[in-house]
Recover the amino acids of this structure.
């Protein structure tokens, strides 16, 4: 938004749609146990699962489309080549994926007591587990053309047909369908931008739909990869336990897992080449003004692959323009693609001290030292949050997981205060005083950094269904700072040195990883004082004084831009490197909270 002139940067409006998602799941499991010796038991078994991909039955299921460049739809013959639907060759009711029937999940475990005293225990196991994919994949089809329409107004359009020159349009408040200058804008083809609302879905079987009205089609298009399968995880652990006394057990464990075929999403029709660069545009090339991805759909600034809408509303694609998107970005945009191609690994040392209630004290303490790496941390992590997944270089996405917290220590306790030993005559007053609490210390989780305008010039966030993969260059040490210090050496409440990261040169891949630094950790504790007053054996009052965030410690959230879970290196939102929020733990991110409570048990 240009507040001085009152011009919005972008505009978007959707017609809405209906989701009638459906999937099936079948699960069976067989297990046996063999006691090899009195002190050694072996357990083994296998699961068997059948998952069907999610589908959306809206409009007879035709909304489950796919993007297959070069294939012409026969279901909707006026769709630009590449946008295909159930009923087209190779496109089934799920949009292409098939049901997998060979999902066996074997598991093996053992338990061994190595000494006659039975004070030692060693147990472990390994198993393969499958997971149902997210219903989100069906939800995303809600706005696939031609079943719904998302209008972006004059955004990402120009004042001429897409194969000519022209000036990039900016929507106005009064009429977002023309430029603020009053000029007519063209998103592609020969059809000018117009207001498509209210939108009435087309009848089934309509073969004369003008798809120009949905441009850029990829901005509101998502489908499943034809190799879509069930995500899976191989989990394994080895634990050694020692009973220290009749009330206390110490355990040390190695716990890990390997994730395979995990869900993620990319945008298609990207410009450039591996490993995510575009050397044919920018200063010193034939396209010196094509300096960032946000200009890829701007005719006259970047190379544009031509496209022609014919008189019968079909489309003819031109030869891909070197340095540009392979297909005209004003018409095609960047269609979304959901995949199960990503991997992760987790390895940890877990130590637990467990003292059951004895002599007035109960303690449970757990320490975890771990590392967690992946190529995307969840389906939404790098699909709708920046940076997106780089489809040219899978290994470039490998980094500490967004969920990686290398160290974590938690202790909980209950202690019966020995007041009763001081005054035996007043038992109702002195008995049943308990002090209970929990305290957590945890390392921070990674901070994602991104390049919103994508100076690699491979992707345009203005026309893509998912986010683009731009990352910055790292040119210096991160320089972690204390955001509490808003004076002296840190007047701007910076958490890290913003000068350590810069926008990469045009056409190049940023050198920073997708999660190059860790955010603030957790230092947090709750304490409660309890007093029970017994009336008889089954009835009593309980009075409680509870404190949350007892020591009033501020737990800062990760630095991020408003509306995102990561931070934009260009500082377009004026917040790069700064902390503006606290973690929402038991007090919702606020300071110490104290409350009184009373209960009557009967």
């Amino acid at each position: 938004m240009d507040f001085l002139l009152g011009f919005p940067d972008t505009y978007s409006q959707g017609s809405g749609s209906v989701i009638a998602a459906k999937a099936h799941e079948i699960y069976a499991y067989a297990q046996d146990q063999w006691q090899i010796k009195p002190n050694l038991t072996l357990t083994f078994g296998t699961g068997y699962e059948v998952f069907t991909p999610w589908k959306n039955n809206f409009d007879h299921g035709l909304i489950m489309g796919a993007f297959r460049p070069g294939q012409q739809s026969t279901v909707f013959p006026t769709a630009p080549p590449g946008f295909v639907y159930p009923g087209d060759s190779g496109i089934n009711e799920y949009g292409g994926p098939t049901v997998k029937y060979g999902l066996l999940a074997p598991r093996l475990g053992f338990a061994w007591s190595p000494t006659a005293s039975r004070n030692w225990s060693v147990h472990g196991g390994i198993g393969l587990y499958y997971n149902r994919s997210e219903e989100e994949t069906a939800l995303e089809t809600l706005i696939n053309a031609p079943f719904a329409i998302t209008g972006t107004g004059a955004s990402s359009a120009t004042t001429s047909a897409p194969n000519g020159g022209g000036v990039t349009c900016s929507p106005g408040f009064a009429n977002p369908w023309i430029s603020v200058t009053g000029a007519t804008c063209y998103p592609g083809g020969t059809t000018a931008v117009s207001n498509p609302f209210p939108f009435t879905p087309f009848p089934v079987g309509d073969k004369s739909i003008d798809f120009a009205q949905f441009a850029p089609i990829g901005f509101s298009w998502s489908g499943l990869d034809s190799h879509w399968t069930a995500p899976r995880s191989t989990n394994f652990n080895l634990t050694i336990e020692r009973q220290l006394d009749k009330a206390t057990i110490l355990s040390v464990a190695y716990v890990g897992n390997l994730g395979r075929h995990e869900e993620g999403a990319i945008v298609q029709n990207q410009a450039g080449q591996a490993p995510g660069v575009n050397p044919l545009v920018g200063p010193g090339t034939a396209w010196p003004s094509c300096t960032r991805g946000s200009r890829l759909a701007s005719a006259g600034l970047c190379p544009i692959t031509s496209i022609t809408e014919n008189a019968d509303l079909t489309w003819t694609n031109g030869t891909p323009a070197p340095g540009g998107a392979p297909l005209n970005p004003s018409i095609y945009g960047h269609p979304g693609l959901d995949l199960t191609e990503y991997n992760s690994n987790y390895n940890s040392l877990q130590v637990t001290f467990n003292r059951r209630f004895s002599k007035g004290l109960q303690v449970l303490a757990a320490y975890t030292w771990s590392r967690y790496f992946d190529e995307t941390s969840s389906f939404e992590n790098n699909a709708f949050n920046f940076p997106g997944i780089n489809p040219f270089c899978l290994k470039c996405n490998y980094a500490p997981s967004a969920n990686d917290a290398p160290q974590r220590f938690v202790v909980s306790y209950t202690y019966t205060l020995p007041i009763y030993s001081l005054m035996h005559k007043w038992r109702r007053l002195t008995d049943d005083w308990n002090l209970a609490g929990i305290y957590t210390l945890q390392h921070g989780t990674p901070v994602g950094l991104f390049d919103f305008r994508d100076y690699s010039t491979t992707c345009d966030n203005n026309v893509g269904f998912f986010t683009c993969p731009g990352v910055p260059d790292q040119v210096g040490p991160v320089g972690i700072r204390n955001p509490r210090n808003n004076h002296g050496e840190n007047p701007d409440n910076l958490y890290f040195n913003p000068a350590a990261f810069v926008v990469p040169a045009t056409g190049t891949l940023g050198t920073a990883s997708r999660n190059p630094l860790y955010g603030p950790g957790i230092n947090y504790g709750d304490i409660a004082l309890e007093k029970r007053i017994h009336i008889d054996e089954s009835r009593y009052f309980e009075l409680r004084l509870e404190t949350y965030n007892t020591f009033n410690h501020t737990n800062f959230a990760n630095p991020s831009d408003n509306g995102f879970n990561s931070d934009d290196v260009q500082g377009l939102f004026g917040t790069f490197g700064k902390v503006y929020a606290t973690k929402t733990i038991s007090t919702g991110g606020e300071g110490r909270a104290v409350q009184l409570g009373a209960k009557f048990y009967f």
Summary: The chain has a mean pLDDT of 89. The helical segments are 136-139, 329-332, 427-430. The first helix runs from residue 136 to 139. The CA atoms of residues 418 and 577 lie 50 Å apart.
